[in-house]
Amino acid sequence: MKKYVLGVYEKAMPNSLTLYEKLVAAKEVGYDFIELSVDETPEKLSRLDWSKEERDQLVMDMKKVGIDFRSMALSGQRKFPLGSMDEATRIKSLEILEKAIILANDLGIRVIQLAGYDVYYEGKGNEITRKYFLENLQKGVEIAAKYGVLLAFETMETDFMDTVKKAKEVVEYINSPFLMIYPDLGNIKNASVIYNNDVLDDIRLGKGKTVAAHIKESIPGHYREIPFLTGHVNFYECLTELYKIGVRRYVTELWYTGAEDFKVDLRFAVKTFREMLDKIEGEY
């Protein structure tokens, strides 16, 4: 039995597929689990209001197919950020977070990945937005502790939290076992170019605080939809450092962009990174 698991981001598959069909496809190409998306679109946010019957059906589907949704990317708070200057938006943000935690609990999801933004569409944040962000984050972490669901920050593309170092500062400020770090390799690689720092050193700073990692490609200044192995992320070295600090959960983050056969990209990703992780596992 392997000592790690490799999952795939839900958005790597066409949105036209049902969740059951996505489970079947992910298992067919060789993944261990899927990361559920709850983004800012009404369609995805409505998942937070699924009925008990809908939740139970998805659990039964996971058991039937033999593969699970075991993490959640909660990017919906980008539109409703914890640090918003608008009180109604902050209230909505906490409501979204609480509903996401309850949904995770009902589905058996272990980790909710939070987007590391104090604000997003409101422009650059300030000391007030940071203050609101930390206050509301504390409330959210207390809810997560109640349900036993881990929250973990994704390192993003803005300077608020684009490195493991910055995420660690927030995690240590909150100081809860239910708030950790979930770095995105493409984003921290781009940050290393901006700040002229070593991406491997940044990864090492997360030792004891990193619960999983997004395997994503990037090029300087561009953060999405870059095909694997065509950018500048030094995947093998990064995955080695993550493995050395104890990370055993990985998700390939890629997007379906209209390819005739979406499984081609999935097969390439799962083959490429399973081979890397197998080799790393054999060395350590």
Q: Secondary-structure map with pairings?
A:
Layout: E1 5-9, H1 19-29, E2 33-37, H2 42-45, H3 52-65, E3 68-74, H4 87-107, E4 111-115, H5 127-147, E5 150-154, H6 164-174, E6 179-181, H7 185-195, H8 199-204, E7 213-215, H9 235-244, E8 249-252, H10 263-283
Parallel strand pairs: 1-2, 1-8, 2-3, 3-4, 4-5, 5-6, 7-8
Helix pairs in contact: 1-3, 4-5, 9-10
Structural overview:
With 284 residues, the protein is an alpha/beta fold. The protein has one domain (5-283): TIM Barrel (Alpha-Beta Barrel). The protein has helices spanning 19-29, 42-45, 52-65, 87-107, 127-147, 164-174, 185-195, 199-204, 235-244, 263-283; strands at 5-9, 33-37, 68-74, 111-115, 150-154, 179-181, 213-215, 249-252. Strands 6-5-4-3-2-1-8-7 form an eight-stranded parallel sheet. The model has no long low-confidence stretch (mean pLDDT 97). This is L-ribulose-5-phosphate 3-epimerase. Keywords: Isomerase. Pfam families: AP_endonuc_2. One of its GO terms (molecular function) is intramolecular oxidoreductase activity, interconverting aldoses and ketoses.
